[in-house]
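Hi,

I'm pasting everything inline rather than attaching a file, because the server keeps stripping attachments. The sequence lines come first, and each chain or strand is labelled.
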Amino acid sequence: MSKLLARYSPLLLLAVLWQLAWYFEMVSSTALPSLVDVASAWVDLLRSGELLRNAAASLYRGGAGFLLAVVVGGALGMIMAWWRPLNLMLSPLVEIFYPLPKTALIPVTVIWLGFGDASKILLIFLGCMLPVTIGAFNGSRSTEQVMVWSARSMGASRLRILRDVVLPSAMPELLNGIRTALALAFILLVTSELVVAREGLGNLIGYLGSNGSYEAMYSVVLTVAFLGFAADRIYQYFMRWILAWRDATTG
Amino acid sequence: MTEENAQIVVHGVSQVYRPPAGREVLALSDVSLEVQGREFIALLGPSGCGKSTLLYLIGGFLPTQQGSIRVDGKPVSGPGPDRGIVFQDFALFPWKTVRANVLYGLERMDLSRHERERRAQSFIDMVGLGGFEDSYPSQLSGGMKQRAAIARTLAIDPTILLMDEPFGALDSQTRRLMQSELLSIWQRTPKTVIFVTHDVQEAVFLAGRVAVMSARPGCIKAIVETQFDKADPHLLKSPDFVNKVDEIWNLVRDEAIVAQTARHP
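And the predicted assembly:
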């Protein structure tokens, strides 16, 4: 517990500085409201149900887009590594779309699918897919030939080898790609909701900001920050659990 | 009629290696070789002589470009559980424990779960890894990893054991120990062994015949009988053994002498 406290003490320090800056009126209180007021605004949002309703909408969009990206991107990357024609066909597309800021696609997905959930899910799916695909592709390519040969000499079919040898070999890079995708999902989610949406945490931030409810706006911003942090932490535990074989050491 | 008696018949095999970049190399040129059932033969030669390529062709991992390879009378068309392989870098699945690695090949055999487990355990014990069943490869030393790999390959009971410089990555003490153990395993469970190495002493010590290969293009320059009493603890110092090592060493080293004394099979 004390270790945890020590680790996150810089955050605590930042909170104290924030509160001091407000107290001594070093910045205008609209730019930086009291942290105590932000906390009470958060409690109000929670009680009214507004926070949960919007969070649920965001979670649905983000979760659906992210999971789709993991499944489709992972499979695509593995097959690209396995089957050359698909690689030749798709790798130029991947190279062109990778550096494109996916937020530029917000208007495009809205034109295609409208203002609802579908356009956000598509945007997050498109944005998150590439890092997963690239991770799965590079990871699969790192599969050692001798392991594949060993499995074949032990009677494994090609499909089994994909599952039993290529997928585990790709796992470290694949999981890193998914971690990047997780962070991207939050960025794309909040941005797209800020730009065009009727609900969601990003929409709530924009709505509260334009209404001048800065305390409440800050409380949602901090909520999003915390959710992003928590998701990454949980994901890291998951990653360590999956890759336990790699970290196993003597003694 | 020797062709029909031999278990493995390599006939007129040539193989071109095409690197991703650069010029094509003739890895093997018109190689012919016969290996009898339960024979222990070593393929000896400098690196780049195509000895591993020949092993991979027999294993069915690479398609034969020219010539033919028959195992038990049937042309090789791909890998199969009748030919187990052990690699220099072990090729263990690092995400599986020792037990799970050994069980992997057994999963596709028509055995009850209990029988699979029993069999895996007996091979783990055979290579002296009892107590390390639940260790991951990353927790094992090089010698232990190779023991695990050998157990995994032996567990599927191949009639032919292909070994690609299996002790090349081990330190010299461990290598000596593993050589003796391999011999004792081979004596207990007789299999045909094709053992690739560039270590002359290792080849003479382990094998009953040594096929000496020369580089670029790879071909078999000579086949030398190396029958010794492997149980003799002083074998490595005996004059006969030392002379045989010398004889083969000269074949490997000196291309001029090789050219004159080459005996194509």
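The interface with chain B takes residues 144, 146-147, 149-156, 164-165, 168, 171, 245-246, 248-250 of chain A (CB under 8 Å).

If the labels don't parse on your end, tell me and I'll reformat.
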